[in-house]
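USER:
Before I trust my own judgement here, I would like a peer's view. Write it directly below this note and I will take it from there.

ASSISTANT:
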Amino acid sequence: MKLNVTKVLLILAEQGITKAELAARSGVSRQQISTIIGRGSCAPKTAGKIAVGLGVSVSEIVMGV
């Protein structure tokens, strides 16, 4: 699933949280968060976890929705 990395980073900035905090909130490892942001894609299940960690819907952080 293609993520809108800019949107994810914008939400992190708006909420004042770090990638490490996102990892803790979403149940995804810090290393995996960094890899996903660098690559710009992840599995749909992981996108769901990241969305929950950010407190947004999946449609807000994926491309082309």
In short: The first helix runs from residue 5 to 15. The chain has a mean pLDDT of 95. The CA atoms of residues 23 and 32 lie 8 Å apart.
